[in-house]
Amino acid sequence: MAKLSDPSTWLDTYGDTLYRHALFRLQDAMLAEEVVQETLLAALQSRNNFAGKSSEKTWLIGILKHKIIDHIRKSVRELPLDEDLREFDSICDEVFDGKGYWKIEIEQWNDPRRSLEQEQFWRTLENCVSRLPARLATLFVLREVDGLDSESICKELQISSTNNLWVMLSRMRMRLRDCLGRHWFDHGTV
Amino acid sequence: MLNCKNTSDLASRSLDKKLPWSKRWALRMHIFMCHRCRRYLRQLRLIKQVAALLAQRLDEDNANVYLSAEAKVRIQNKLDENRANAP
How much is the ipTM here? Predict the structure, then answer.
């Protein structure tokens, strides 16, 4: 059965990776640091439960993700959802005319695969995610990156109906596409 | 007939779940005639695929994002504190 390495080495070995995961999801350096610390503490306390089914790194990242969801749950309680929904819709007024047809052009994205090889592209993407309204940024992470199911997402983000979830996903994707288009693809870069 | 706004919502929906036959058909009809929505759907699909890759990238060593030495000391201190207080 796989054994864990010496816990006193975890911070050095995994600290940066854990921090990267946390920072991306929380967009807050101090909070990310706090969560890394909570993760290592929780891992230390539950190290006898490590069954060895995954790698040590995967196990730690799993604990980190749980800690992050705990934080999300706490912070979400403070945000009123109604105002969010109205704010989310504002992008529709920018891009659709009165009859619901596009009033902007949707440019062709040439050779998108080549972009994936460029470091700057990923930074642009992360930038675009960080510009999303907080709830939509979290939605992007939980759904598109972590692949969390609809029921769990609604629960964690306190979304009252799956219908609201679909609308939020649509708005999130529209904003992201818009941002990536304007800041990367439409320049004819690549 | 769908307008582009309805179509954009349906396009997004189609990424998560197979649409019922009538909606799928309506989506296809609109996309057939609307180059903007056609591109829009394609771009949404790309972004979703890219997002999945993002998760992998977080595991890779990235010289730009790391815990500072001070941060590591802070964390280590907190961990040591806890161990001292542990039963």
Answer: 0.85
Q: What angle do CA A152, A129, B55 make, to 5 degrees?
A: 60
Chain segment A102-140, per-residue pLDDT in tens: 999 999 998 898 999 998 999 899 899 989 988 899 999
Q: State whether residue A167 is helix, strand or coil.
A: helix
Query: Which of A37, A92, A166 comes nearest B5 by C-beta?
Result: A92
Do B76 and A11 make contact, defined as CB atoms within 8 angstroms? yes
Nearest chain B residue to A106, by CA = B36
Chain A residue with Cα closest to B53: A145
Q: Which two tokens stand for residue B54?
A: 């993002």
Tell me the CA end-to-end span of chain B in Å, nearest whole number.
68
End-to-end CA distance of chain A: 48
